[in-house]
Design goal:
elongated; 37% strand; two-stranded antiparallel ribbon; binds zinc ion
Length: 175
């Protein structure tokens, strides 16, 4: 969906609210498809900031069908955030202020889909876990350690420690 904002560049003072829904059923993330389970309509509030410039504010909430980074079990991830961006039209003589990170509109059109997909990526969690203390998968037998304690010996000596140990041993021999 595209929202026509041309009236903002004709009038000096204007406010407008538009409700729109993300059309995509899934997003591509690092080459992986992630399904969108729930999406609430997003209300975009546009407000003119003077010639050739306007702000878009609002908030969104989407639920995704993801997997736990630890144990790989399915887990729902909610991504929600507020946004507040400055938009300007390419045709306008708008002076860029670095801190604003403005969004360039092509032909006075606001692309809902592109905007929301970008906002989702910006707000995507660094790590997805089914629970805070997810025990993950045993590197030896592959068991989900949240469900079973397999008792495998997963102790792997840190190679950096081994180097220090060698130096320590060598130093001791010299004495
Ligand atoms: Zn997990
Ligand atoms: Zn194991």
């Amino acid at each position: 969906m595209q929202i026509d904002l041309s009236s903002f560049f004709e009038a000096e003072k204007l406010d407008k609210e538009v409700s729109a829904k993300l059309e995509a059923q899934e997003i591509r993330f690092f080459g992986e498809k992630v399904s969108i389970l729930k999406k609430e309509p997003v209300v975009f509030h546009f407000s003119s900031l003077g010639k050739g410039k306007l702000s878009v504010t609002g908030s969104f909430k989407f639920t995704f069908d993801t997997r736990c980074d630890g144990c790989l079990e399915p887990v729902e991830t909610v991504v929600e955030a507020d946004f507040d961006r400055v938009c300007f039209a390419k045709q306008e003589d708008y002076e860029l202020h670095e801190e604003e990170d403005p969004l360039e509109l092509s032909g006075y059109l606001f692309d809902v889909e592109a905007f929301l997909l970008n906002e989702i990526l910006i707000n995507w969690p660094m790590k997805i876990l089914c629970k805070k203390d997810c025990k993950g998968i045993c590197p030896v037998c592959g068991a989900n350690n949240n469900l079973v304690e397999c008792g495998c010996d997963t102790f792997v000596p840190d190679p950096r420690m081994a180097v220090i140990q060698d130096i320590f041993n060598a130093a001791n021999k010299e004495v």
